[in-house]
């Protein structure tokens, strides 16, 4: 039984098939690929696009999504094995995942890091706990990666360039400032999918402290080796933007300061000029700009960039619906 | 593309058609006017009737409602233009409304005033923000007016009197006490629809401080000019109730004290006797009583009034379902 | 019009028919017994299994469930009659139940005790308030009893033993430790249904302080008189487990300390050894173990017991879906 925990677990052929299905679901909204089936959407963190797109995707294919928020309107869950559960958690993932699997055909999980200890958060314990105990396929709705966003992003780029072959495009993943130290999930994912698609990828960030976890740097290197393209790291804004076909922005906290954000704050504050603006976009090869949303305007990107015709963030967000329908349909009918 | 932000934006012919559709939906519960379609219900404030009736209305017509609560289980939203978003808000209404419009066919919005500055609240910024950026029709689920309640109320009165023509009826909108300074939305709406229907309307309130905003007093005057009927303001309970065919109750905070409620409290506390009771109802012309609910019993109206046969508040609440189905069907198929 | 407030209100014939329907719904998941119909699920307390199973049950039978959480995303509700509602509650159960009844075909209610005054909590005011004012059938989704769990439990036992006739089985309901003083609902229910099914029931608990409320002890006695079997109370672990066919565990607070839990805590702390473990299970007649979930592992039962083949807690949880479909179908089509 296949889960959808990361794009890296799926072959390029499988990913291409899902993207093709997504394009088809975009043309034909209503179908019966999930008729009478159901998905539990388990949210440990808030969501707008993810919830709406999964819930509607299920509906449009004849299925039903149940939205659960453990610790809020459901019980808090224990993920460690062998624990004497005398603390706050009321039930173990073993029971949660097994019982949900009896009710539904698919389980989606959103679980952000706790931002205390990266060594622990990078284990993706919540998602893996569901995948371990569930007897139905599990979908990553964003944990320390965001594979559904990857597919939506890839589809938006394929639509923009009018081809499924993205090789030869210069792709810049740029760090941007944000008042809070954010999750690296979407950055990890952008690096993963951009290299998977064989693009020439530049990771632009202020300093080496802002490099991504070695797992994802490693996936990217492996993808370059297998799919062509290239990967380079840059700390120079202008040369990174020069000639870019795609600019993708994301803010994240520096991993060496993970869980100890006070000293990172003054460092991060020095790099507010990484904001995506018209001057930088003018350096590109008539490039497109995108972002996973939510985006703080005039912090990560200016109003002018967000409102420009070359901003395809809303297209990408729309594609969440279509790619998730494709993923759900593929998993529920495997 | 037509929104449903206020009844005043719709022609009398259009409103009459919606009320006729609502009566039909009341007779035939199940249909396919929204087959495969969807609505996002965006709640910035709590709801029981509104959520239930919209969600069920969509279901009964073959559609699906997604319920979102920004700032609770979705991201907090920025409504001002040009803001450097370094505060609490995580995304701008421009993106929220555009993205939702890609997912759904209709957007409903509930956003009560913030009760700090009426000059700001009266701009109805949240609703107008959605209407500005959305590319699908937007429905007001109560902001500073409550047009769905207006239609439900009008339909309940048409049912009670056995005619769609309400002209010649004496209609009393009475202020009542409530421990908190409440929203004027339903009062604004009652004044608007009662005058629109050509009734002889009396606005009964303790003092001139409790008059409604000039925008709604103006709409009422305009409606009288166009639809016949009359409008008067009274501070005398007994003469206002005398001969009334309809008594509609609502509590609201006095606008001159908006955002500065401390000094208003002792004033408001003097008028607890505005409660709707059997003695007052006995002064009417065998009149009906209604209220938008929720209602605090023995504060706004006595148990005896609420449980009397002339109380049609539950009928009115039921009609929310029917009128909203008519509004959704009209907007989704325009 | 019949409600489903307690199994004790239903005849044995009716219960047997519901269990037979549930077994049928388990074989044939999709149906139209609730086509176009709806249920409001009113949660005053959190839920995972209950919400998911009711929501999916409605969907799989062509209906729709609306989930409401009063005081959280709906208005707080007043349950007392004649109250001057100048406190926190915004509307009276009379209006809530009447209005919901206009919208939906069924109402489910979850309302745990407030844990302050058992004399008050044992009146089950919230559930009874809904049943009093609603004009549609009301279903108990757990208050001070949990009749849906009873049916799921009974069905799991019938499946395990391969017969609908459970007479002659030795059934042990064992109290277990838990860091908090919990609701007696499931214990009351287990005692009720086990005696109703004519089993030989032992209530195992640390001391007489942990006996259940006399109402449920009385129901059990009445059930024994009518259905055969037996009922005994034991404070001795080994003799209670000896030869048992079924071990059902639940923790609850001692009623004599209700609302005054401080002095009960050190007493309860002495009985952590009531945990269900392999040594105790080895005393049984190759017995099965079950629990209503959520369960704190290594507090109420050990990992080894939870992961053993004789643990049927997940089967029981699954059956919630099937029995609730049977209850909803029976009530909506009466």
Q: What does this entry show, briefly?
A:
Chains A, B, C: InterPro entries: ArgF (IPR043695), Asp/Orn_carbamoyltranf_P-bd (IPR006132), Asp/Orn_carbamoylTrfase (IPR006130), Asp/Orn_carbamoylTrfase_sf (IPR036901), Asp_carbamoyltransf_Asp/Orn-bd (IPR006131). 3 copies of one chain form a homotrimer. Chain A has helices at residues 12-27, 49-60, 93-103, 118-121, 125-133, 147-161, 185-196, 214-227, 237-241, 264-269, 278-282, 303-306, 313-332; strands at 38-43, 64-68, 77-78, 91-92, 106-110, 138-140, 170-175, 200-204, 230-234, 246-250, 288-290.
Commentary on this structure:
The structure is a homotrimer of 334-residue chains. By secondary structure, chain A is an alpha/beta fold. Chain A has two domains: 7-145 and 320-332, Rossmann fold; 149-316, Rossmann fold (3-Layer(aba) Sandwich), CATH 3.40.50.1370. The first copy, chain A, is built from 13 helices and eleven strands. In chain A, α2 (49-60) packs across α13, α6 (147-161) packs across α7 (185-196) and α6 (147-161) crosses α13. Chains in contact: A-B, A-C, B-C. The interface between A and B is medium-sized, with 32 and 31 residues. Chains A, B, C: This is N-acetylornithine carbamoyltransferase. Chains A, B, C: It is found in: Cytoplasm. Chains A, B, C: Homotrimer. Chains A, B, C: The modification N6-carboxylysine is found at residue 300.
């Amino acid at each position: 039984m296949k889960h959808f925990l990361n794009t890296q677990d799926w072959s390029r052929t499988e990913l291409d098939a899902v993207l093709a299905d997504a394009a088809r679901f975009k043309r034909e909204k209503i179908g019966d690929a999930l008729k009478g089936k159901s998905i539990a959407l388990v949210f440990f963190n808030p969501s707008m696009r993810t919830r709406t797109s999964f819930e509607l995707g299920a509906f449009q294919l004849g299925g039903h999504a149940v939205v659960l928020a453990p610790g809020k309107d459901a019980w808090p869950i224990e993920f460690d094995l062998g624990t004497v559960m005398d603390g706050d958690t009321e039930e173990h993932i073993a029971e949660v995942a097994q019982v949900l699997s009896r009710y539904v055909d698919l389980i989606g999980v959103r679980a952000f890091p706790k931002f205390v200890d990266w060594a622990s958060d990078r284990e993706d314990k919540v998602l893996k706990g569901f995948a371990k105990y569930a007897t139905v396929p599990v979908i990553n709705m964003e944990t320390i990666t965001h594979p559904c966003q990857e597919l939506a992003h890839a589809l938006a780029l394929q639509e923009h360039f009018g081809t499924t072959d993205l090789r030869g495009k210069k792709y810049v993943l740029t760090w941007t400032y944000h008042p809070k130290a954010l999750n690296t999930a979407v950055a990890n994912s952008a690096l993963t999918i951009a290299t998977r698609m064989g693009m020439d990828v530049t990771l632009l960030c202020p300093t080496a402290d802002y490099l991504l976890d070695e797992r994802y740097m490693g996936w990217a290197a492996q993808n370059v080796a297998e799919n062509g393209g290239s990967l380079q790291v840059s700390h120079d804004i202008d040369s990174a933007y020069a000639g870019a076909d795609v600019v993708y922005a994301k803010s994240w906290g520096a991993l060496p300061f993970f869980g100890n954000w006070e000293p990172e704050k003054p460092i991060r504050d020095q790099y507010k000029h990484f904001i995506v603006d018209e001057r930088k976009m003018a350096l590109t090869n008539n490039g497109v700009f995108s972002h996973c949303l939510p985006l703080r305007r005039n912090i990560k990107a200016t109003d002018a960039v967000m409102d420009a015709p070359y901003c395809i963030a809303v297209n990408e967000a729309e594609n969440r619906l279509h790619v998730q329908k494709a993923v759900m349909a593929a998993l529920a009918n495997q």
